[in-house]
Design a protein that fits this description.
six-stranded mixed β-sheet; single chain; binds adenosine-5'-triphosphate; four-stranded antiparallel β-sheet; 229 residues
């Protein structure tokens, strides 16, 4: 097994199997999935409901240990890591973009971003500069002081993307990031995600069931019954 382990500073899943339950209730959510995503590469995972897409992201984001197989995130082998190391890995090397932004209602757009360094300790001048740079990158400089209810769905999702980039993630994971958006805004967010993945060299995986959104991806992989093709 070690001889075939891929080396990448991005994301590598090697023959990953994830099972839920046991016996009669056993579900194989991921079935020997192998996937390598290089830094700066944008991979779309498409597949029907229940095919294992969210399970793939949970494993790739070090949220769930696979039943079998290896996951490497930015050169850290997840199976060998202790809980504290995994928590640090999630906080410092992985960015998540959620379906509907997952913003805190009481915080301005800028403060949503500054919450990331705040949770790791303290906010530095460099963090403030980075937050402003990221808000500019997603086209929200003029709306940095607005709270979520003062932003459109697409704008909220842009804030979610900028927040996911705050910790300079090696791995960027997006779970149906366009679910709450109309077609035009969905395309805009995916284009922005692709551009940021490339520019910031994040190994990026976007899960979607929308085959209209695949043009922006460098690579498309299909998931069916827990298997990738
Ligand atoms: N905690 C769990 N316990 C038991 N089975 C689960 C659990 N989570 C997911 N599953 C099962 O694992 C399989 C894959 O689920 P998963 O959520 O990864 O699919 P998905 O492709 O993301 O689906 P959707 O597009 O509907 O979100 C499904 O059969 C699902 O019912």
């Amino acid at each position: 097994m070690t001889a075939t382990t891929a080396t990448t500073t991005g994301l590598a899943l090697e023959q990953v199997t994830l099972e839920y339950g046991t016996g009669d209730t056993l579900v194989t959510a991921l079935d020997e999935v192998t996937l390598t995503v290089e830094p700066g590469e944008f991979v779309a995972v498409v597949g029907p409901s229940g095919s294992g897409k969210s399970s793939l992201l949970a494993v790739a984001g070090a949220l769930i240990h696979p039943t079998r197989g290896q996951v490497r995130i930015a050169d850290v082998t997840v199976s060998g890591a202790k809980a504290a190391e995994l928590a640090r890995l999630r906080r410092t090397r992985i960015g998540y973009v959620f379906q509907s932004g997952n913003l805190l209602a009481s915080l301005t757009a800028r403060d949503q971003l500054l919450l990331v360094p705040h949770l790791s300790g303290r906010i530095t001048a460099e963090d403030r500069a980075r937050a402003d740079e990221l808000l500019e990158a997603v086209g929200l400089t003029a709306k940095a002081d607005r709270r979520p209810h003062e932003l459109s769905g697409g704008e909220r999702q842009r804030v979610g993307l900028a927040r996911a980039l705050m910790n300079r993630p090696a791995v960027l994971l997006a779970d149906e990031p366009t679910a709450a958006l109309d077609r035009r805004r969905a395309r805009e967010i995916v284009a922005l995600l692709a551009a940021q993945a490339h520019e910031r060299k994040a190994a990026t995986v976007m899960v979607t069931h929308d085959t209209d959104l695949l043009e922006a991806a460098d690579r498309v992989v299909h998931m069916r019954d827990g298997k990738l093709s």
